Amino acid sequence: MKRGRQTNPREYIEIRIEQLLEDRKKEKDSFNRQWLWRVISELKYVATMMDKDRAGKD
Q1: pTM value > 0.90
Q2: Which of 10, 30, 36, 55 could form a disulfide with 24 if both were Cys (CB 3.0 to 4.6 A apart)?
Q3: Rounded to whole angstroms, how far apart are CA atoms 17 and 45?
Q4: What is the pLDDT of residues 6-32, one digit of tens each?
């Protein structure tokens, strides 16, 4: 991370989900694909909670 640069956790989560989806497509092992899907699902849940929290503050 660069100094002085503003970080956006929501943006990071979206980028990370996309990276994990790409990794999942390339993965040959069924167990690893399932594990990656679980991680993706958890990140999507966190993003949803962040959106709900933001909507509650508006």
Answers
A1: no
A2: 36
A3: 11
A4: 788 999 999 999 999 999 999 999 999
